[in-house]
Amino acid sequence: xNLHEAExxxxxxxxxxxxxxxxxxxxxxxxxxxxxxxxxxxxKWDLTGNGRAMPGREEFFAELENKLNELESDTIPxxxxxxxxxxxxxxxxxxxxxxxxxxxxxxxxxxxNQHSSDHIAAxxxxxxxxxxxxxxxxxxxxxxxxxxxxxxQLAVFGGADIVKQADGTLAYRAxxxxxxxxxxxxxxATPRGRQYVxxxxxxxxxxxxxxxxxxxxxVFSGKDRTVELEGEAxxxxxxxxxxxxxxxxxxxxVDVLGTSxxxxxxxxxxxxxxxxxxxxxxxxxxGNEAILKPGQQANDLTGRRSSFKVLNKVDTDExxxxxxxxxxxxxxxxxxxxxxxxxxxxxxxxxxxxxxxxITGEFPNSMELKEVxxxxxxxxxxxxxxxxxxxxxxx
Length: 395
Fold this sequence. Notes:
This protein has helices at residues 3-15, 20-32, 35-45, 57-70, 107-111, 316-319, 334-345, 369-378, and strands spanning 80-85, 95-101, 135-137, 143-145, 152-157, 160-164, 170-174, 185-189, 196-199, 205-208, 213-217, 225-236, 245-249, 252-256, 260-265, 271-278, 281-285, 288-292, 297-301, 307-311, 326-333, 348-352, 358-364, 381-386, 389-394.
């Protein structure tokens, strides 16, 4: 048995369709599998984004064997396939399938392991209950509400012209005084249910996801270009080898020369995920370092049992689906899905479903919350909205 066959076996075991010979072959493979093979296997079956780290090699053997044995007496519920119809996106109606798999024990359980006036709406779909608008706080503490600002120059501050462009995005442009004076820092923050695009003074672009913020100088006057991120953003970095670009996030740093990458670091996710699309980046954090190639993702789990790994051949389309106005999930645990719903629809989640529930599918973030609740209910769940608290329960 090889790694691909081992992955296939786990899928068969989850549905109870494996043979005794296949199980014996899998147990033999476990005894000879390399650390890299185990890490790749657990990267697909254990890395759920809920902050739980991958067990050590020996613990992995013991836990997996125990879970396999438990399946002898456990019943695996049937997988439910449901059609979900999108509302039109870019004038096209698209059908998406949502798959929820529930398993009380066994392999799937093992898985769970603004100098301005106001503010302009960003070029994104606004959900039914957006929080307060996108806010820019400039160096002197002035707060600019971007949603109501008209296109044009909003302020001249810190050696930069602050401009709201015709497409609704924000741009910092070097002004006449950019070579002199103290560098001041600004913070752009999005509420739940909103996204925004910022052009930095060097021409780099930051696509900020919901419930996120980026802190940056009005002018990049030092030896490098450093910004700080909370939440999630997609970066398109203007090349400048003589002045490296750096992103600080929690207790980690991503160093860049010229590239595009996604950086996700919501505290509630319990991990920092750096996904490279083009170019090259170096991730450093928690005593770990890795130079990424396109298609790779550095995952740094930040929980009590911190762990670090680099995943190869990541589905980058899924990673940046949010940037296109989509929710895209591939075998995502229900906790991860619930947290995304909370950030976009500005609700608190009361999750009363085992984390062994997984979802695969795609739907637009233009769906109203009540439509999302209907999808969950058709999937065998029960939902209830009380104020801004959404309860997700088993029926």
